[in-house]
Amino acid sequence: MAKGFEGSYQHSLDAKGRVVMPVDFRAGLADGCHVAPGLDRCVSVYPDATFDQVRARVTEAARRGTRQRNAARAFIGNSRRVEVDRQGRVALPPTLRELAGLDRDVIVVGIDERIEIWDLARWREQEAIGLEDLATSPDLADLGII
Length: 146
Prior knowledge:
single chain, Chemotaxis protein chec, alpha+beta
């Protein structure tokens, strides 16, 4: 993928637990994708090639100790390969919806090499923390923001 995912888009899960991927994201997912547990209790969506790289890093980390092995089991064991359907929807397995607390209103956020799907209310809380950190960070130059 030449260009990363960026931006945020509010959507709703349908009765079958599917969420519409923003039009801007669909080309990056055209060859298939994986849904997986994300950091901070969201659902991450990875293009297949990116997921293969992430899975390899997780598998390597699992050799370092019990915590890493447990995290690898949870990550890989709850990941699923999915397709984007003709309407641009991705089906989220019930286990991942439960893990992330996804019920109805969600936000789909591009985070460069992956997409995160958050419960809308939880995202607003997380976003407020991130915006505060961004506004008050003494090391913005380290982030490349000057």
